[in-house]
Amino acid sequence: MKQLDGFPTSYWRTSIEASTYPKLDDNLTSDVVVIGAGIAGLVTAVQLIEQGYDVTLIEADRIASGTTGYTTAKVSSQHGLIYDELIRTFGEEKARLYHEANEEAIRFLRDQTTRLAIECELEEQDAYLYVASTGTKQKQLTKEADAYSRLGINGGDATDEVKDKLPYPVEQALVIRNQAQFHPVKYLLGLARHFTEQGGKLYEQTRATSVESKRTPTVLLESGHQIEAKKVIVATHFPFNDFKGLYFSKLEVHRSYIVSGLVQEDFPDGMFMSADKPSRSLRHVKTADGKRLGLFGGENHLSGHQTDTKANYQALAHFAESEFGVAEIDQFWSAQDLISLDKVPYIGQMTSDDPNILVATGFAKWGMTNGIAAGLLLSDLLTGTPNRFRGLFDPNRSKLNKQDAKQFAKNNADVAIELLKGKVSRASQSADDLGIDEGGLVRHAGKTVGGYRDESGELHLVKTTCTHMGCDVKWNNGERSWDCPCHGSRFDYEGNVLEGPAVKPLKQIKK
């Protein structure tokens, strides 16, 4: 497989025309402000507008410019090796609730897309979890099979079935039936159209920088304008106002990678995911011209902890070629995911002392169902409607158990280490030494700064101190971005914010 060149692009975003909603250039008042036009934000906004609320939805970039536009778009309650762990952490009752919340999300998606006539390529697929080798992960998969049985999950052992479907050895596999896959951007654009048709106010390229909640909740915008509201919902993936509730200390940030390429008609139906290493995820898409496009995902790692991310794409390209005969990679892209201390999302009141600010985050790579579940729960919380999943997802749920405390300590020790490492990093080359399409730490005017030379030869220099909490960002050669290893903020080579929690750009250095 030849070397992958160029900048990453997502099939979901390039296969349909982008949205063009206006930027907010005035002050507003509203019943509810929803910040973030990903799946959680749009589902919440639509639910509330349909119940008669005055709703304003703002997005820092364009609709689906965040993780929803860069996902594998599997709509499934099969979230890796999760149910045995949930039983051990929470007990059977809450583990069953987690499964039911995600299954209800799938049913809601089917009903809603039919009711609103949203064409988003939604189709039923079974979901398979497998191990390709013996060892610890196979033992865990056996325990997961027992958890399926205890929780009454519609599925179970599918070892022989998966062995027939996949071209490489499989030791053991599980299935959950009647899951789904879809085109996430078409879904979100359909929701946006419906939302605005119902009177909702939607503004793109409108970045929130803070939320004031002393009296009337007020969202302050990068433009200097503000929106006053009765309730504010933060659905920005990583909460940009994360100091409220110390969310920066309770979320672990991961990146994973996807490549796509045309596959043969006998490419297996179903959605597949490996439980062992290296991680691999498979599904297909039917393109507009009737061909099959395979999506190959995996290569997960902590965000900001790898600089040669081109190698991750290359590993997936090799897998697609060697196992499925993919002759050429069509597109490649990556996504960022947040994992809470106990693997269950934080959905609800952001802090116990402020009922007016709500949050949805920590979907642990499964935002297509957890995001819908979040929208349904948040809208119920605002309307006073009982919701049996409220306690499970409550961001202020009971104090840290032993395992949570252990994860909390690990996450924050890692942050401290990265903070220290960044402060002692020194450049090994001069800014003048950078080649075309090359970036990294460089020496400039006697200081270590971040540099990138674009394809036209222009040099871009930035200060590498993250504007969130002061960690030093690292160069990501696959995305041509500066990534923070502490809390996952990302910036383009000019310093502009790509991904929060940071809301301010990196400082540009004059050449």
CATH topology value of the domain at 11-70 and 185-249 and 343-400: FAD/NAD(P)-binding domain
Q: State mean pLDDT (0 to 100 scale).
A: 91
* Number of DSSP strand runs: 24
Give the class-level CATH name of the domain at 11-70 and 185-249 and 343-400: Alpha Beta
Residues in helix, %: 25-40%
Instruction: Quote the beta fraction.
Output: 25-35%
H/I helix tally: 11
Q: What gross morphology would you assign?
A: globular
**Strand-pairing-aware structural class:** alpha+beta
What is the C-alpha radius of gyration, as a whole number of Å?
22 Å
Low-confidence residue ranges: 411-416
Question: Which architecture of the domain at 11-70 and 185-249 and 343-400 would the CATH scheme give at its second level?
Answer: 3-Layer(bba) Sandwich
Terminal Cα span? 39 Å
Assigned CATH superfamily of the domain at 11-70 and 185-249 and 343-400 = FAD/NAD(P)-binding domain
What characterizes the major β-sheet? 9 strands, mixed
Protein name: FAD dependent oxidoreductase
Keywords: 2Fe-2S, Disulfide bond, Iron, Iron-sulfur, Metal-binding
GO molecular function: 2 iron, 2 sulfur cluster binding; metal ion binding; monooxygenase activity; oxidoreductase activity, acting on paired donors, with incorporation or reduction of molecular oxygen
Domain Rieske: 426-511
Give an overview of the whole structure:
It comes from Exiguobacterium sibiricum (strain DSM 17290 / CCUG 55495 / CIP 109462 / JCM 13490 / 255-15). Residues 426-511 form the Rieske domain. This is FAD dependent oxidoreductase. The chain has 511 residues and is an alpha+beta fold. Among the domains are: 11-70 and 185-249 and 343-400, FAD/NAD(P)-binding domain (3-Layer(bba) Sandwich); 401-511, 3-layer Sandwich (Rieske Iron-sulfur Protein). Helices cover 28% and strands 29% of the residues. The chain contains 11 helices and 24 strands. It has helices at 11-14, 39-50, 83-90, 92-115, 136-151, 159-165, 184-197, 310-324, 367-383, 390-393, 402-424, and strands at 28-35, 55-58, 74-75, 123-131, 155-157, 172-181, 201-203, 208-212, 218-221, 226-234, 251-263, 271-274, 280-286, 292-302, 331-340, 346-351, 354-361, 438-444, 447-453, 459-462, 474-476, 481-483, 490-492, 497-499. Strands 3, 4, 5, 6, 11, 12, 13, 14 and 15 form a 9-stranded mixed beta sheet that branches. Helix 2 runs parallel beside helix 7 (184-197), helix 2 (39-50) runs parallel beside helix 9 and helix 3 (83-90) crosses helix 5. 51% of the residues are buried. Residues 411-416 have low confidence and may be disordered.
